[in-house]
TrEMBL record:
PANTHER family in the record: FLAGELLAR BIOSYNTHETIC PROTEIN FLHB
Topology of this chain in the membrane: Multi-pass membrane protein
Name this protein carries in UniProt: Flagellar biosynthetic protein FlhB
Keywords: Bacterial flagellum biogenesis, Bacterial flagellum protein export, Cell membrane, Cell projection, Cilium, Flagellum, Membrane, Protein transport, Transmembrane, Transmembrane helix, Transport
InterPro entries assigned: FlhB (IPR006136), T3SS_substrate_exporter (IPR006135), T3SS_substrate_exporter_C (IPR029025)
Principal location: membrane
Originating organism: Gottfriedia solisilvae
A GO cellular-component term linked to this record: plasma membrane
Family assignment from sequence similarity: Belongs to the type III secretion exporter family.
Role of this protein: Required for formation of the rod structure in the basal body of the flagellar apparatus. Together with FliI and FliH, may constitute the export apparatus of flagellin.
Length: 360
């Protein structure tokens, strides 16, 4: 029977693994995130149409004021450079007051829509010019890619949604439209205004639903695009391990963990040998586990002070013996049994401690 040999290295390049936190961070720095532009558009439009709905009286009053002021004070003025400049400046200011709220609402809505999707993020890499994007071959690939098809479907859906929303509102308001020839100009303006606002709100809300669905797709597509191969993960790990900053952080974290563990062991000590201020060594003797007393904590200066404070809080006996404290600190590490040369001195200390605790 013929045997088929597979080279597993061929599969190591397949991007089947989820992206690591480091890869995600690098991708985010490049401005590549999973977000839906449709949600941004829908939120901006919806907020503006809601402003038109609730700020109708303000807008009508402001527009009426602009027209009245122009017709009463500016229409019959003699045209001169000074008059024209004054009139235009006044009109510009009134128009700014009229459209300023629109711009403010749109700006705030755009910020809220972006932050709600990707959080606070600023990247200049996304706006850098990339000449590779001008490659016609790459352009044809993009045209016939899955993403291009999805974008085409979204565009068709948007046109359909906006058209359907507008048709629905117009159909529901057909009687009001038929009455337009028989009502005043102000009522005509209000009717058209209400019709536009209703259509806009309905279409924007529908686009928002489409945007939510698009966001799910964008996140799925984003996760697929940032997948890594097993080899990528190995290379990243090797690179990170070789980074002095990463190594320093890892060692710092390990020291912090070891320090916390050491502090948690101090209440189990039988005795603390002190300098008395600069050195402190905590000893434990458990004849069932060890043949000799062993060190469970040690420290100098501030750390020695913390050891003494914990010992005092747990009523652990502290013995001042400067030479022994210095020697134990210099010759032992956490978990080490005390050297044989110190057996006699430590045995006397433990006997004294046990006597105090009435263990013998």
């Amino acid at each position: 029977m013929a045997q088929i040999k597979l080279n597993l290295q061929l599969f190591s390049g397949e991007k089947t693994e989820k992206a690591t936190p480091k890869k995600r961070e690098e991708t985010k720095k490049k401005g590549q995130v999973a977000k839906s532009v449709e949600i941004n558009t829908a939120v901006i439009l919806l907020s503006m149409f809601l402003f038109l709905l609730f700020g109708r009286q303000f807008l009508f009053d402001q527009f009426e004021h602009v027209m009245k002021d122009y017709l009463e004070h500016n229409l019959l003025k003699d045209i001169s450079n000074q008059n024209a400049s004054s009139v235009l400046s006044k009109i510009y200011m009134q128009i700014l007051i009229l459209i300023g709220p629109f711009l403010g609402v749109a700006f705030i809505a755009a910020i809220v829509a972006n932050i709600s999707q990707v959080g606070f993020m600023f990247s200049t890499e996304a706006i850098n010019v990339k000449f590779s994007n001008l490659n016609p071959i790459q352009g044809f690939k993009k045209i016939y890619s899955l993403r291009a098809i999805v974008e085409l479907v979204k565009s068709l859906l948007k046109i359909t949604i906006v058209g359907a929303a507008t048709f629905y509102i117009i159909w529901q308001s057909k009687q009001e439209l038929l009455n337009l020839p028989f009502i005043s100009i102000r009522e005509v303006a209000e009717t058209i205004y209400n019709l536009v606002v209703k259509s806009g709100i309905f279409a924007s809300a529908s686009l928002f639903i489409l945007g939510v669905l698009d966001l799910f797709y964008q996140r799925f597509d984003f996760e697929k695009n940032i997948r890594m191969s097993k080899q990528d993960i190995k290379d990243e790990y090797k690179k990170s391990e070789g980074d002095p900053l990463i190594k320093s952080k890892i060692k710092q974290k390990q020291r912090e963990i070891a320090m916390r563990r050491m502090m948690q062991e101090i209440p189990n000590a039988d005795v603390i040998i002190t300098n008395p201020t600069h050195y402190a060594v905590a000893l434990k003797y458990d004849e069932e586990k060890r043949d000799a007393p062993f060190v469970i904590a040690k420290g100098v200066d501030f750390l020695a002070l913390k050891i003494r404070e914990i010992a005092k809080a747990h009523d652990i006996v502290m013995i001042e013996n400067r030479p022994l404290a210095r020697a134990l600190y210099a010759q032992t590490d956490i978990g080490d049994e005390v050297p044989e040369e110190f057996f006699k001195a430590i045995a006397e200390i433990l006997a004294y401690v046990y006597k105090l605790k009435r263990k013998i």
